Amino acid sequence: MFHEVGGGGGGGGGGGGGGGVTDLTVRQGANQSAEEGASWLYTFIIGVVGLFVDLPPTMTSSIDESSKEKMRSVSVDLNHDASLLIDIPDALCERDKVKFTVHTKTTLSSFQKPEFSVPRQHEDFIWLHDTLVETEDYAGLIIPPAPPKPDFESPREKMHKLGEGEATMTKDEYTKMKQELEAEYLAVFKKTVQVHEVFLQRLSSHPTLSKDRNFQIFLEYDQDLSVRRKNAKEMFGGFFKNMVKSADEVLISGIKEVDDFFEQEKTFLLDYYSKIKDSTAKAEKMTRAHKNIADDYIHVSATLNSLSADDSTANKKHLEKLADLFEKLRKVEGRVASDQELKLTELLRYYMRDIQAAKDLLYRRARALADYENSNKALDKARLKSKDIPQAEEHQQHCLQKFDKLSESGKKELTSFKGRRVVAFRKNLIEMAELEIKHAKNNVTLLQGCIDQLKNN
Amino acid sequence: MAASSDRNPPPFPATEEPGAGPSDMADGDSDEGEDIFSNPVAVSRGVSQPDRVNEEPPDLFSEEEEASSTPAKSNGVHSDEDNDLFAEAHVELSTDKPGSSDRKELSSSSGLRPASSFTQSPAAMQPTSLEQLEEDEAKDSFDVDVAVTNPEKVGDGMNAYVAYKVSTRTSLPMFRSKAFTVRRRYSDFLGLYEKLSVKQSLLGCIIPPPPEKSVVGMTKVKVGMDDPSSVEFVERRRAALERYLQRVVSHPSLLQDPDVREFLEREELPRAVSTQALSGAGFLKMINKASDAVNKMTIKMNESDTWFEDKFQEVENEEQQLRKLHALVDSLVNHRKELCGNTAVFAKSMAMLGNSEDNTALSRALSQLAEVEDKMEQLHQEQAASDFFIFEELLADYIRLLGAMRGCFDQRMRAWQRWQEAQSTLQKKREAEAKLLWANKPDKLQQAKDEITEWEARVTQYERDFDRVGMTVRKEVLRFEKEKAKDFKSQIIKYLEAMLQSQQRLIKFWEAFLPEAKAIA
Fold first, then answer.
1. Rounded to whole angstroms, how far apart are CA atoms A341 and A163?
2. Highest mean pLDDT among A86-100, A217-231, B44-58
3. What are the chain B neighbours of A283 within 8 Å (beta carbons)?
4. Percentage helix, strand, coil, to 5, in chain B?
């Protein structure tokens, strides 16, 4: 049922550029080749450059400039059901705010039109997520985790530093660094679009959630949702947070679990969550170190070029070749870093959030169990006092039903979650391994070429 | 031998340059194709070319010639030379090597070829003949092979030191045997450097400098040699000392120096005590003092030295760029070490995750991933070492060597200064004599005349010295540049080959992992 594509099926780091380093970017129709995708995206980088955020005054693109970046859907797997197809074909970035264009194609009569698009902000997605979480009826479901806020902080800071350090580097060096940063912006951008899209697609593929009224409003309502958002916040404001806090306590305080399945799941999920959180953080650090090395290569290449330019001896060509090699190597290194980011780090990150959502389900069920047990106690008390027995009985029945319903749907959800997770890991690990091999082979070719050139000279 | 006086190569002060590099071209050449060697040129191979001297003076300075001879380049078909010109060259070379191949003595054996066989100025030079000579030179330099190995800590506490094994293999008769080993400590190497500096740098030679002193590094070693940073320090020093010695013995003049021989051969060396001045800082101070003296010179040198000025500027620029590159490579090394650490940590985390995973196949795959990442850590570690020991140290060596080269230039300036000062003293003496004449004091007059004669001789001597130093410097610089190109090339290749192997292993690791990932169900 759910075919989760973990951290996004494609989108290997932006800034495709140079020789033959194409990879699995985006795929939609059968005709869309990876190459096309990569180069096509690339042409938009130029337009996209200025739009992300503060650029140092020396840059030509103005800060207010905003351009559209067309994005294609990256998670084909989720969009199977023709009755409701959702994707985010467009996104626009102004300063900090990203405006997504949510595009829906449907055959369902519950919608007014068969095809339509609406602009949505990140906050709208959060609103949708929160309302779903608050909906009692969905207590037994794993609500897909909310997409994280678009975070351009890191590349923005780097861009600033780059601007400040411009005087210390050669023009060439500066251009290359800028390119790298632009690629980074692009990667962040792609990721955020992807993650928002996946969120919607999970909803649309879920038999129950896809029918949610708020979901429909989200997709269809062509006005600004901010009014609704404010109302929702006032209503639910701190509730969610409180729930999370108390939920932890409930679970941890060791309610006696009646069902082995859930007992195991609880143990498993709690443990797995902390491990995966740890792995995510460590993977992030690894990726960052890779990026640093790629940056170093840029500087090394530039300095070698300067040395070579001033050199009048036989050494000149050696230095030139080495400079050239480092420039090529750094592109590969950059791809290694961004592919690792997407296939590994993003995968881990996504499942960390998903596991949190699964944990939330467990919390809710645990609360329902607590309610049921309390209702039992209340019934006993009522029987003792011979007062209000029918209400107490009703209440107890109600709690029991709720609890059973939660348990039943919860079991289903958790089982399919397992399957989903395994499939996603498999896909991403395979892809990551293949990419690592590809990049290393590229490196080998580059290195061998340079060595041969040097030896034959 | 001043036979060159009638041939004045354009840029050089036409003094009696000892006929330097015999031009192998000269040999067969003069008759050989005028078409090939339109400007027959003496090849300046400061190497042990020696006795084939021709009165071709300054082609020592192939640089000039290269520039002017580019048209000739196309002619320089290697094979031509092989057959005719250099057949004899080889013969001469081998007999030459031991002993007398000192550049300064070239003049003595000249006269083999009548100057008349050359009608043209030796200014232009055949680059290809240079290549041939390079090959010959390469053969020569492998007549002595040195290695520095087996660092061992001797003694305890603060008096401890590290002794290295210095092994030499040689076919040169000047050594007592063909292969021998001695034990030396760091201060011995420094002592050798000091002795060589004192003697040779006055002549304008570039003396390779040894690695700098390091109080911090050594203290750690004295305390205990076990932790990774000490091990790295010792290894770094050992490798640097080895390269230092290799450079010394591949320098033809230095190899002749008895101190070098003593260093390599003698069982026990007297402890070198005055090595304070030669710590890294001391060395730099020495160079800077010389530069200051030069800067204080008020009389500007005449323009016939544009070669020197230009070269000096080049050297300064290059040194600056190398320093920058060195810092960048250092940053690269640090980032790679960081990656290494992060990867190791990640691998552990992944292993834990694999243990937690309840799907068996996925659990196994995650554990395998953890192992792959462990292997990656190993690769990164090795790569960082390669970055450091091959690339970074290469740059460090050349930064030091360029510093030594600058010192060389300064020596030449000093020589010039001495000459100028002598000239002005002579002038004063002459004025004094004139005054005496006028004042009519015959007794003092004789003394004055004597002094004048003395100073005239000095002036001539200093001028000769200056020219000689100039020539040596030029030769040295050219030789240095060639060596540098070779050195860089071989080190770069070594570095890249290491990187290549690393990537190939990486491929194997991931290829081994792939089926595991595919097996997840």
1. 26
2. A86-100
3. 346
4. 70, 5, 25
pLDDT tens for each residue of A397-451: 999 999 899 899 999 999 999 998 999 999 999 999 999 999 999 999 999 999 9
Indicate the pairing of strand A115-121 with strand B144-154. unpaired
ipTM: 0.78
Q: What does the alpha-carbon distance between residue B47 and residue B34 come to, in Å, rounded to a whole number? A: 26
Contact (Cβ atoms closer than 8 angstroms) between residue B520 and residue A426: yes
pTM score of the predicted model:
0.72
Q: How, if at all, do strands B161-170 and B179-185 pair?
A: antiparallel
Q: List CB contacts (< 8 A) between A433 and chain B.
A: 510-511, 513-514, 517
Helix (H) or strand (E) holding B150: strand B144-154
Question: Which among B207, B42, B12 has a CA at the least distance from the CA of B113?
Answer: B42
Contact call for residues A220 and A104 (beta carbons, < 8 A): yes
Q: Per the structure block, which two tokens stand in for B229?
A: 């940073």
Amino acid occupying residue B463: E
Q: Strand order in A115-121's β-sheet?
A: A68-70, A84-94, A97-106, A115-121
The residues near B431 (Cβ < 8 Å, ≥ 6 apart) are none
Of B314, B352, B369, the CB nearest to A429: B369
Position B174 scores a pLDDT of 83
Tokens of B11: 């840029």
Query: Do residues A78 and A202 lie in contact, with contact meaning Cβ atoms separated by under 8 Å?
Result: yes
pLDDT higher than 90, residue B497? yes
A436 to chain B: nearest residue by CA?
Answer: B510
The secondary element (H helix, E strand) that includes residue A58 is none
From the centroid of its chain, how far is CA A128?
Answer: 17
Whether the CB-CB separation of B132 and B82 falls below 8 Å is answered with yes
Nearest to A155 by CA among A137, A178, A171: A178
Asked if B196 and B254 count as a contact pair (C-beta separation under 8 A), the reply is yes
Cβ atoms of B498 and A452 closer than 8 Å = no
